[in-house]
Amino acid sequence: MERLQRELEIQKKKLDKLKSEVNEMENNLTRRRLKRSNSVSQIPSLEEMQQLRSCNRQLQIDIDCLTKEIDLFQARGPHFNPSAIHNFYDNIGFLGPVPPKPKDQRSIVKTPKTVPDTDEDEGAQWSCTACTFLNHPALNRCEQCEMPRHF
């Protein structure tokens, strides 16, 4: 009977020890879950928001460019060779190097008249990053290629 009593006490101690370990593990799990949920619900900082906006803007521009390229490739038909587009001079009909200007004609060269780029009410015209077309300041996309404006 005493032997059984001692074994019962030993088993009770083991059970208590296991219960305390399980409680500790559950507490750790609860802490980790709270920590994870708190980190997800935090509001991003101003710098992070600006960085995300910049990345989103760049991704939208990349998407627009790729869409335009796909449309261009599809418009050229099934026999279009995309490897030919990599040689810039072949595509523009380059005939050779541009000869240097004669030195004695510097005084003859007229300076082109400048066209005012700004309307006083609307601000400066902006140049498209894709096609370099000068667009009206009120437009958010290029008139020629519909590329979004960089702000």
Automatic annotation (TrEMBL):
Biological-process GO terms, alphabetical: positive regulation of canonical NF-kappaB signal transduction
Positions in coiled-coil regions: 1-76
Keyword annotations of the record: Coiled coil, Metal-binding, Zinc, Zinc-finger
Top-level division of the source organism's lineage: Eukaryota
Organism from which the protein derives: Apteryx owenii
GO molecular function annotations of the record: K63-linked polyubiquitin modification-dependent protein binding; zinc ion binding
Descriptive protein name: RanBP2-type domain-containing protein
Metal-binding keyword on record: yes
PROSITE patterns noted in UniProt: ZF_RANBP2_1, ZF_RANBP2_2
